[in-house]
Structures are given as structure tokens and as C-alpha cells.
Amino acid sequence: MIDQFGRRVEYLRISVTDKCNLRCVYCMPMEGLPWLKRQELLTYEEIARIVRVMAGIGLRRVRITGGEPLVRRDLPDLVRQIAWVPEIEDLSLSTNAVLLADLADELRSAGVQRLNVSLDSLRPDRVDEIARRPGSYPKIMEGLAAAEEAGFSPIKINVVLIRGRNDDEIEEFAEITRERPWHVRFIEMMPTGANLELSAEQFVSCTEALRRIERIEALEPVAGPFGNGPARYHRFPGAPGTIGVITPMSHNYCDRCNRMRLTADGQLRPCLFGALQTNLRDPLRAGEDLVPLIAETLRVKPERHYLIQGSAAGSGGLVALSQTGG
Ligand code: SAM
Ligand code: SF4
Predict the structure, then answer these.
(1) What is the pLDDT of residue 314?
(2) 154 and 226 in contact (C-beta within 8 Å)?
(3) What is the DSSP letter of 256?
(4) 165: CA distance to ligand 1 center in Å?
(5) b vs e for 156-186, b when ≥16 Cβ sit within 10 Å of the residue's Cβ?
(6) Ligand 2 pocket test: which of 28, 71, 94, 321 has the largest number of ligand atoms within 8 Å of its C-beta?
(7) What is each CA distance from 37 to 18, 200, 265, 287, 323, in whole angstroms?
(8) Which positions ≥6 away from 31 have C-beta within 8 Å?
(9) pTM, to two decimals
(10) Ligand 1 center to residue 26 CA distance, Å?
(11) Residues 107-132: pLDDT tens digits?
């Protein structure tokens, strides 16, 4: 699958639910998001069917995301169905890890190869405040420990930077990479309908994060772990882990975009932002050929996103990243 700008698209991020057990301040509103109805959601068989069709025309890598994917029942069943598709070389999962402790082993044996875990602070009270769900921190830590025990490697830790909430922990997060083989990735907050004020007023750029880390010791650029996508990686000399930056706002990386997204209700989106999407669910249920629809979605994949700091204009009506999988 090659788009009109010459980008090879071989990666699909699949959101399996729009629901979440957390309410991260930068992601979801506390309440008021309308949930998808059960019959609107793709079944696991339907998702696997779409993966098989796309694998036939070049899909090689899949990430399962949400909302929070672990809140959807029997997720390992979906993992097994995708892992069986011979063309899929890489299957990963993004999670907040709250429910991971009980599922890590089963997910690994079902076929998840790599994990990204969201962890925005190293302090229990702050994690709970950012996630707006008390008691999250110990569960996340148990989940991370279980993931390490289950043999997941690399583990990537995603940290969304928020001024006044976690920006004073940038150095601490960086120091972890000297101790553990974690790949800590700082992410710039993107504006959506639900976080306009926050993203305008409490935005921190990754340039600032790197500048502060380099005051501890000079970093060296490295290739980063497999599946590095838009992140650019650095490390302290000799450290087992790396420090990545994901800079959708300060340095747009759309020219390297290799992905499309499938929402939980079966909309194929060529870009995280913007209003473009193709309904695959209804044609799939009607027994139609999906290949022309996928080809058309690829054809209209925009050259770049048009996000503007402090404005919802570029997000294409998107209220929360939980709706598309981030
Ligand atoms: N619930 C899972 C999790 O938190 O990892 C998967 C879904 S979440 C939408 C995927 C990623 O998007 C997370 O790393 C999260 O931190 C990030 N994210 C959500 N809203 C964001 C925003 N407005 N700006 C930047 N990153 C955001
Ligand atoms: Fe839930 Fe992930 Fe969004 Fe946090 S970032 S509210 S964990 S979907």
C-alpha cells in the first residue's frame, strides 16, 4: 500500500473499544462522551477479517489500542486471531496497564510481542490526579512488573508532558533508563476538543525536555527499539534504556507516516486527525469487497495533519484521542 506521496503504509492501529477505566486529563473528558453501542462495535471476527484483507495488500504490523483495550472482554481471543495471520510480522499493544497484572502472561502467549504503557508520573498521587481515578498507581506498577516477568521486551513507557503536573519529573524519567531497559518516550500534548485549554496553557515541547536532560549528561542519538515509528531516540552513554521524543506539534513527522487507523466501530482513518474516514463495517457486514474501499482511503491519505496549538480546528471534530486510538 503506497500512497500518493510515496509513503508505504504497512501498519494498522486498531482501536477495540472507545471506553476506558481512566480519564486522563489530556485525553478524555470526565464525562459526557457518548459511548458506541454494542452492535456498532466490530466483533473480533470482523476485526480479524479486515486484518486478513489488508494483509493481502501489504499490511505487516498491527497495534491494538483503545480507549483502554484491556477493558474489552476476552482480548487474548482477538490477539490469537491476528497472530494467526501469516503476513503479520509484528503485533503490539498500547495499554494503561491497570488491568495488565492478570493478563500479561496470557497476552504474551496469545501473540502480543511488544507493549507500550502509559505512565505520566512516577508519583502515586500525581498518577491518580492525571488519570482522575484514585488507586491507579499500584495497579499500573503491578501490571508493569507482570509484563516484565512475562518477558515483554522492549517495554516502552509513554509520558505525555504537562506543565505543572509532570514536567519537573523529566529528569527522573530519564534517569530510569540508566537502571532499566525501558524506552521512555516523551509525547507532546495534541489539542483535541476535550483538552483545548490544557493543551494551550500547559503544553511542554520535547525540545525543552531534551535540553533539560542534556544538563545532566550529553545524550547520544540511537536508532531506538524495533517499531520506533515517529519517535526519535537518544540515550545516556552506556545506559540500557533509551529516551524517545514524539513531537507532533514542534516537529511534524507526517512525511514518515506509515499507518492507518481502524476505529472500534469500523471506520478506517487515513490520518489520526481530520474528518476523513471510510466505513468498512457496513460493507463488511453486507459481504462487499473491502479492497477498493481500502485503496480509496489510502488514495485520500492527507500529506500532513493541520493541528494548531490552542485550537480544535485541525483535529477534524475529534473530541478525544480515546475515540480513535491515539
Ligand atoms: N489507553 C491506552 C493508553 O493509554 O496507552 C491506549 C489508548 S491512548 C489514546 C494511546 C496514547 O495516546 C497514550 O500514550 C496516550 O498517552 C496518548 N494520548 C492521548 N491523548 C493525547 C493527547 N491529547 N496528546 C498526546 N498524546 C495523547
Ligand atoms: Fe484512557 Fe489511554 Fe486516554 Fe488515558 S490515554 S484516558 S488510559 S485511553
Answers:
(1) 64
(2) yes
(3) G
(4) 16
(5) bbbbbbbeebbeebbeebbbebeeeebbbbb
(6) 28
(7) 10, 32, 9, 22, 13
(8) none
(9) 0.95
(10) 8
(11) 999 999 999 999 999 999 999 999 99
Name all residues whose Cβ lies below 6 A of ligand 2.
20, 22-24, 27-28, 66-68, 96, 118, 322
C-alpha cell at 29: 473528558
CB 23 within 8 Å of CB 130: no
How many helices (DSSP H) and strands (DSSP E) are in the chain?
10, 12
Which domains does the chain show, CATH number per domain?
A: 11-323 (3.20.20.70)
β-sheet bridge partners, residue 244: 185, 233
Q: What is the pLDDT of residues 9-25, one digit of tens each?
A: 999 999 999 999 999 99
CB 270 within 8 A of CB 304: no
- Closest atom of ligand 1 relative to the 159 alpha carbon: 16
Per-residue pLDDT tens over the stretch 274-317: 778 899 999 999 999 999 999 999 998 887 876 767 766 666 66
Ligand 1 site residues, Cβ closer than 6 angstroms: 20, 26-27, 65-66, 68, 94-96, 118, 158, 160, 187, 189-190, 192, 195, 321-322, 325-326
